[in-house]
Amino acid sequence: MTSTTASYAELADLSVAFTPPSPAGLNDAGLLSAKRELAEIRRRLDAADSLVSAEIANRSRPDLGYDGLAQRLGARTPEHLIQRVAGVSKKDARTQIRVGTLVTGLTDAAAPVDPWLRGVASAVAAGSLSLDAADAIRTGLGSAGSGVTVVALTAAADQLLREARELTVERLGARARELRASLDLEHVAEREELLRSKRYLHLIPRADGMTRLDGLLDPESTARLKAVYDAATSPRRGGPRFVDPTSIAQADALIDDTRTTEQIALDTFLVLLELGTQADVSTFIGARKPAVQVLVTKADLDQHTGMAFIEGESEALSVATAERHVCESGAVPILMDDGQVINLGRELRLFNRRQRIALAARDGGCIWPGCDRPPSWCEAHHIVEWSRDGRTDIADGVLLCRHHHMLVHNNHWTVVRYGNRYAIVPPASIDPTRTPRAAQTKSPAARRLMSQAGR
């Protein structure tokens, strides 16, 4: 046991003053090893902590009235008591109680855990799954019923546990909601309308003369807003590089602008609002709308059932919404053979607009494991360089965000294709074995197409 690890092992001995050791002397491998060890220690501590929180909630049940633990100590709820004792946020206290109750159900016959969540609860108890990840799976999958069976939910939970190590908590939650939607197609439209009914915009005056803008957007509204936001600010936020001289000049001017990125975004929205009040609605900003790509498989569109997705958004939408967008904007058919978009040849050095639409539909954003950059922030990368007779074909192109695109070119990473699958291969300096790391599509529509094909 290294001195660093030994020091962390003393965390539980509260009789000894603890000072965290400095990681400055660790090499890169040792630094990452320490991070992994601390993450596991934290997961174990959180698992034990959640059980304590769940028991505090149990001893503060509403039916106990003022005899409840929290109430006797002057706290209105167990969450408030946990906040006071542990110094955590209300959100964290609630998560601890929910997940702790889940883990308690593994051994409590009086309140057993839902069958499809037993694996999730066991992973938390073993210290291999964080509380936030467990809560994301629990919330995203929901309950059995409405045609969704316990068997189907169990299979979905098991799949999420396999994917959890490669996904952030946010993406794991989105993936859980995606799987739930695929199991409950009859209620996709209802869930879409429920989210839409929650949208709002508030203007809140402050004492200092400023006004706070507060709002909540449903997925479709978010996509429309993000299209404008990204167009106005992406060069400032690490967006794609440009080769057109005019675009380069515009990007340079935005980067040199003395306003903050947030101020540029606000000013853009105010200008658009002003234009909207002055212009003829039939000619406002020409006839061009913000680019919002709706992805839906032909089978779902033909049958008027199933689900659709907005590019860059994880929530499933109804096919009726997809049909509305097709009616307003037309459809761009993207034909796939064995999960791969049809090749378009080597005549062009750069991927054209239609090819980029196809790449976005297939990849759903940067293919780098763990990266959440959407297609609009990505650049098309030749997996075989053009200078080495690479082809500007969809199959030989992938989407990478600017950071990872530069990493590939500058740090000797490579992207390889195995049929219709892709992998990232690290340089020998990172991994002497150069073991490929799977790069799975982030496009829920592409995964939907695969599931329809029985893959």
How would you sum up this structure, described in words?
The protein has three domains: 3-186, no CATH class; 220-277, no CATH class; 336-452, no CATH class. Helices cover 47% and strands 9% of the residues. It is built from 18 helices and eleven strands. The longest helix has 31 residues, at 28-58.
Can you summarize this structure?
This is HNH nuclease domain-containing protein. It comes from Antiquaquibacter oligotrophicus. Helix content is 47%, strand content 9%.
Gyration radius (Cα, Å) is 25 Å
Rough shape? globular
The number of distinct structural domains comes to: 3
H/E series = HHHHHHHHHHEEHHHEHEHEEHEEHEEEH
Question: How many strands, what sense, and barrel or not for the largest sheet?
Answer: 3 strands, antiparallel
Structural class: mainly alpha
Strand content: 5-15%
Strand order of the largest sheet: 9-10-11
- Return the average pLDDT rounded to an integer: 80
Number of helices: 18
Q: In total, how many beta strands?
A: 11
Helix content: 40-55%
Distance between the termini: 45 Å
Region (Disordered): 429-455
Family: Belongs to the Rv1128c/1148c/1588c/1702c/1945/3466 family.
InterPro entries: DUF222, HNH, HNH_nuc
Organism: Antiquaquibacter oligotrophicus
